[in-house]
Design goal:
Layout lengths: L2 H13 L2 H7 L14 H15 L4 H13 L3 H10 L11 H12 L3 H18 L6 H5 L5 H9 L2 H5 L4 H11 L5 H14 L4 H11 L5 H8 L4 H8 L3
Helix pairs in contact: 1-3, 3-5, 4-5, 5-7, 6-7, 7-9, 9-12, 11-12, 12-14
């Protein structure tokens, strides 16, 4: 085991709080493993140890990330989510396949999924927009977290008005997905798209509301004016 990983794990164990560990589990339907630290404390640990690893080769840092993911602990996944975006100026086109492998193999809850995809994959797609089509493949994966990842990876670029056509393409692929984690993911994506493109997102919702799960619909219209929300929620 790398000395940095050993030091991180020792510190996480020392600062673990059983009360936080138990309360954290209430936010997840699936079983999770966590030490029991506040997110701010985990981020502080990540920031401190980043200073020790940032000068290493990117491949070495990726190997550390895989070791962290391999533990299955939520806090260690959060450290990966903190570190990898700091490498964005060193991203290369082939890195997306690495990220896909990580999501498919190790991500097993919404917090790890969103923490990694919002920033790491979002930053990657912003740098290499020609690779955004890969997300459509993710959207039809049998892995629920890959399908959610397809949507939440565009959350930040979409806030700035980018990738609108891809938003609707992804939403079409998961439109009637029975998994609530996927429904919430694409509903959130539509909601963020509505910041800059309210008429287009409203039109999409109205066109599809008959088959759109109510969970996704409610997320999608959350930021819209009251009269639009009321119209979208009408039955029939």
């Amino acid at each position: 085991m790398d000395q940095v990983i050993a030091a991180i794990r020792m510190e996480l164990k020392e600062k673990a709080d059983p009360a936080i560990r138990e309360s954290s589990k209430r936010f997840f339907k699936e079983e999770i493993s966590c030490y029991g630290l506040k997110t701010a404390d985990v981020m502080a640990i990540a920031k401190r140890y980043w200073k020790e690893v940032r000068s290493r080769e990117k491949s070495d840092i990726f190997a550390l990330c895989e070791e962290l993911y391999g533990s299955g602990y939520l806090e260690e996944a959060f450290i990966v989510s903190n570190w990898v975006p700091l490498l964005s100026d060193r991203f290369e086109p082939g890195d997306l396949m690495v990220f896909e492998h990580w999501i498919d193999r190790w991500i097993s809850n919404w917090a790890a999924c969103d923490g990694f995809c919002n920033h790491t994959v979002g930053d990657f797609i912003t740098k290499y927009p020609d690779q955004v089509s890969v997300l459509k493949r993710w959207a039809v994966s049998p892995n629920r977290w890959m399908r959610r990842a397809a949507c939440v990876s565009l959350i930040i670029p979409v806030k700035h008005g980018e990738f609108l056509s891809e938003v609707f393409e992804l939403a079409n692929l998961v439109l009637t997905d029975p998994d609530d984690m996927v429904q919430k993911g694409y509903g959130w994506l539509l909601k963020e798209a509505s910041r800059k493109h309210t008429p287009e997102v409203f039109a999409y919702v109205m066109k599809n509301r008959a088959v759109m799960p109510r969970t996704a619909l409610r997320y999608a219209i959350e930021l819209m004016p009251k009269e639009l929300r009321s119209e979208a929620m009408k039955k029939g």
